[in-house]
Design goal:
The chain has 302 residues and is of the alpha/beta class. It has two domains: 134 residues, D-Maltodextrin-Binding Protein, domain 2, CATH 3.40.190.10; 96 residues, 3-Layer(aba) Sandwich (D-Maltodextrin-Binding Protein, domain 2). It is built from ten helices and eleven strands. Strands 1, 4, 5, 6, 7, 8, 9, 10 and 11 form a nine-stranded mixed β-sheet that branches. The two termini are 49 Å apart.
């Protein structure tokens, strides 16, 4: 940043000096006797004085405009790792816990992709809302797991899918909610703020949606009675119940699915297309080699 500031200051100085020496009001030259003037040499062609400031401005702007983010420049983020990941005390790296569930599997799959493309950046855990904000506000963010929806399609670039799933509303035992229309009558449906579930419920006209920062918080509210229903994929329900200390026998599913979805790695739109192609090729290679299934069995399956 200091180097760029120095270049800009130097360029501005050159422009001021050049303006002073081409301005008739400030430029003074000693008149030469006629006999000293060259008679045979053709006049030298110089760039137009008027063009020099514009060229300098163009050069400074080209230097200042950021280029598309490359693989090694990425900030890589994920969310909702509670109970499914641990931090290496020596390196600070996040690692999935074996047989802990989807988040552990996603984490290890992305770590394998990063190794394949030569990226050594540490993965950081943030809230879902913070991750989505990073995608929209930074030119160099990668964030997983994010559902690829029509509303998000053109806003980001995508690598995946990491998995496909069906998501439902869940309530405690004794809940008599038989379909999504009946769910409109409950006091509160908890969904993660900014998530696909949150968006879908609002788009369908549900006025009883309350937002929480994590899925764990939603199921904690379900247990305490602060929410009547919470959202989860069928495959990741057990992990959420375990984190909230809710016995599986105490939960009831609304039979009608809320949404069918596929989880991806989302990238800021400014990330270079070549980076996206390399990441997708690495994922495809992981699947073709059988390593993807090995990771699934080791980290996703309980």
């Amino acid at each position: 940043m200091r180097a760029r500031t120095g270049i800009i200051i130097a360029a501005c100085g050159i422009m001021v000096y050049h303006k002073r020496n081409t301005n008739p009001a400030t430029r003074y030259e000693t008149m030469r006797p006629p006999e000293q003037l060259p008679t045979a040499r053709p006049p030298r062609q110089r760039p137009s004085a008027a063009l020099l400031p514009a060229v300098l401005i163009w050069a400074v702007l080209v230097w200042a405009v950021p280029s598309p983010a490359q693989a090694e420049d990425l900030v890589i983020l994920t969310h909702d790792l509670t109970g499914q990941a641990e931090t290496d005390p020596d390196t600070g790296e996040l690692h999935g816990i074996e047989h802990a569930g989807k988040r552990a599997f996603n984490l290890e799959a992305v770590r394998e992709i990063m190794t394949a493309v030569g990226v050594e950046t540490r993965i950081r855990e943030v809230s879902f809302a913070q991750g989505m904000d990073a995608l929209a506000s930074r030119p160099d963010a990668a964030f997983f797991n994010v559902y690829r929806t029509p509303q998000r399609e053109a806003r980001f670039k995508w690598v995946g899918p990491l998995q496909r799933e069906v998501d439902y509303l869940y309530g405690l035992k004794g809940s008599a909610i038989g379909d999504l229309d009946a769910a409109r009558s409950v006091s509160a449906i908890c969904a993660v703020e900014g998530s696909q579930h949150h968006t879908v419920l609002l788009e369908r006209g549900f006025t009883n949606v309350v937002a929480a920062p994590t899925y764990g918080e939603c199921f904690a509210r379900l247990k305490s009675g602060d929410a009547d229903l919470a959202v989860s994929s069928d495959e990741t329900l057990i992990q959420k119940l375990h984190a909230a200390d809710i016995p599986a026998s105490d939960i009831r599913r609304v039979p009608e699915p809320l949404v069918q979805s596929a989880g991806y790695i989302a990238f800021s739109p400014q990330v270079d297309d070549e980076v996206i192609h390399r990441w997708q090729a690495a994922l495809n290679g992981l699947i073709a080699s059988g390593r993807f299934q090995t990771l699934y069995d080791r980290y996703y399956e309980r």
